[in-house]
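User: Can you write out an input/output pair for a complex, sequences first and structure second?

Assistant: Here is one pair. Inputs:
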Amino acid sequence: MSKEVIASTATKPRKLSAEEIAEIEHEMTLYPDKKAVGLEALKIVQKHQGWVSDESLLGISKYLEIPAADLEGVATFFNLVYRQPVGKNVILFCDSVSCWIMGCENIKAHIKDKLDIDYGETSKDGDFTLIPVPCLGDCDRAPVMMVGPDLHRNLTPEKINTIISDYSSK
Amino acid sequence: MAKIVIDGVTYEVNPNNNLLQECLSQGLDLPYFCWHPCMGSVGACRQCAVKQYRDEDDKDGMLVMACMTPASDGTIISIEDEGAKSFRSEVIESLMISHPHDCPVCEEGGECHLQDMTQMSGHNYRRYDKKKVTHRNQYLGPFISHEMNRCIACYRCVRYYDNYAGGTDLSVQASHHHVYFGRHEEGTLESEFSGNLVEVCPTGVFTDKVFSEHYSRKWDLQTAPSVCVGCSVGCNTAPGERYGSLRRIVNRYNSEVNGYFLCDRGRFGFDFVNSEERLLEPIQRKQGKAELLTAAQIEVSIQQFSSAETIGIGSPRASNESNFALRCLVGDDNFYAGCSDAEYESLGVILALAADAAFHSPSVREIEQADAVLILGEDVTNIAPRIALALRQSVRNKAKELADENRIPQWQDAAVRELAQHERSPLSILSPAVSRLDDVASERIIDSLPNLIAFGHQIANKISDSAATAVSASSEHDDTLALIAQQLLRAKRPLIIAGNSNGGELIKAAANIAKALQEKNDDAGIDLCLLVPEVNSLGMGMLVDPANKLGAALARLQDGDAKRLIVLENDLYRRATATEVDAALEKAEQILVLDQLPTRTTAKADIVLPATAFSEHEATYINYEGRAQLSFQVNKCQKMAKPSWRWLNAAEHIDDLVQRCCNEAKGFTKLSEVLPADNQFVAGMKVPRQSHRYSGRTAMIANINVHEPKQMVDDESIMSFSMEGVPSQKDSTILASSWAPKWNSNQSISKFQDEVNGELKQGHTGILMFEKSTSVGAYFEPPVNSLTAAEKQLHLAFGFQIFGSDELSARCKPIQARMTDAYVGISPEDAQSRNLVQGDTVTISGTDSNVTVCIRTGIKTGTALLYCGEGSLNPAEFSEFIEIEKCEKQSASLGMRNLILSDLQDEDKSS
């Protein structure tokens, strides 16, 4: 039997900021009970913090009176709720059928070269995190990817160079 | 009744059930995982697929999930259809893809539902040769081990833990191939019913950590039907023994009492039997030296004690037989109650109410059927835990009602929950502090005990004017009380729960409410559940004359009116003040104490006789509802301990003793009905305690002697210490752990039930002892409250803990790992005015007792909730009001970290 266990994490909740609380309060007016707001609250916190830390998760759990275990269940169910820190820009890179036909593997290799990161990793300067997604619903302009909220189509290695320099903080 | 055809055979079935349940009820083999008899269907695992045909002409049919299809009239299905069979074998193959090949080292092996179902579905060769998904395991506390790699994602654990038992700290995380069942972070599982995960999980994800300390395969355990001695519910258990030590306890199905589930005190609180502290030799102390007594000497001593000058003190934790044997030895007049005077007085009230036809004492199953519940002052979760689990089911009756209205079958678990959302049947809790059932409570009032009593009388008065009302300090709860009265009046099956953990007045108020309801409904017997603290509190209470209180016995000893004393399995220092007990014991010329473990009382004894523990003798106990149950001996005590009744009565056969108790003791007429009839057994052969697969009998003591010794003979029981005989394969007259061909796990129980969730075919559920008189007693008068708290004084209420408030289980290591120190719970206001912070130590004035302060937001200002810890404080020492004073902080031995309360004040707030 494996002796390896998951190390204990945070035990103290973080106090949610006034902005976060205001937005969560707004969502609460739209749902019949507090528990239903869990996912929205996670998204709100992620918007402000970039990701959902253990402290934030406990903070939401306390504020909405949802057991931490249940909230963790919601948070980990969705791939786009980040339970680890991510870079300033999250690249959602489509590796589904259409993009694959249109050569997304080369594009990915180019990103990998350029940023020195693979799927699930964050670049050393903290600017980019690369995550694969199954489909972005824009197959006729494949290959596609999103950087933060923006969609980029018909990708080529040259386009990637421009995009990366546009989003880089330097 | 509906008629359905399964593989060409017509069966009469209940159309309100689903096909899986009915197939199992008919004794057919159909594999399943996610369905559980107590939790209904969700259709998650797809294992119970069968072919369903539109009509007789339909030759193709279609696959349906048996658990999701109603057994409606005219249904034609096939379990044996090749298409259905191959579908099921493909389902199990995919469920098994990441399951490790670790059966030889897995503790579930040999009683694993997954093993059984894999065999049954015909999957025997693994084609998948890729990497398996693996997980990291969590530390889940002292009771449960976690091995996530074995998980097949049937969701039974979270459905049991969250939905059924109301736990909040186990959840399903992530999704698809890496779905994970665990806590948000490592830590002790908080639910008082976490141990059932071991039996609910169809494979070895959750296993019994206490058992794994000294593990044995199921078939190697010697086992017998037993009864839990942890509280007054009397859950049925199947303890297992090997090599002379008790290894584990699992649930034993009783449709009326515990069903499929136990609490963690019952499951993990048995280790005291194996304790190194156990008293194992009969000794006599002379001038401070202990001498071993011979059998002849003991007989002479017992003779000396059978004179009129001997007082016998009984025990609520000893069997009827032992109490009765002591009563016979010392005579009725000299046999006294072994509980505190206050407790005995309220026990008298409970016994009087038991005979009143206005009330019905509900079984656990009946408690689940209540559609409006009022708990008056009792902390059910910590006093009779299994009943708290039943109450969690009672609040779901509203959901079932809604389902019926919407014509959704009740077994459609997910649909019924979705429909009901937060709709629950009313459960009102009136208590001195926040309780662990509050999350399902509809109304709750927290107040001091005198006010709670007054509220009880007010509710009774609101139901019927004939009940006298009482004055309470405030009228702030008037609306709530009126609402509770309305809910109880409107209910089809209302239930009132009280108990004697905080005196008898709450019981009287509860009885008035039930009586008022009975008057209004003109019903036979309103459900009135009165809880008592120990396994045989009622049995002892029935054997002792109402006037024979412990205080009177101690006074007689002190006066010199009686010279000798026999104490039966009891520590008097928990029952009366140390001063009283000291004074009485000092005066007694000779003291004989029978017990299993050393106590402060055995320390004062001249003669100590070692008594066997619950698994080492046959015994009957009477539970809170008056149900007499028989507990068989599991194994022989290897040392010199004997059952207390045997020490006190050397010659009589146990069955004769029970028979005599029937004839001589008032109220015990039906006791002998619990004994199995000799003629029930094939060719006079006994029922084996060892399974037909019991192994290693020749090798067990080969390190000492290579000759296999003769098996021990049991002259006193219908069971034998052997594999020989007729095992319980179909007949459940005496059924410890169930087994049926192809069904090695506990799921085999369906083979013994008359239908799923029904009674065991040949078994009986115990005998209800109380005869109802037709006369209905008068209403109780509310107490006249003359005492008021002086300045700085706090109203005292006793608090309890599932782990710690029971004397014997508190001496088990696994239970100790969950215990806390004695504490006094007070409100933040009371803490502030006394300059106290969380965790401070205080002295209770007038005593030399120091306790830790526990500041709780769910306690009314002016009330102190005192948890006495495991024997560290003696409840008999305290009066109705206490004062607390800060004293030097003491290093607590157990600390408070195990305290699971929803209302503990944050440390940063109190500082």
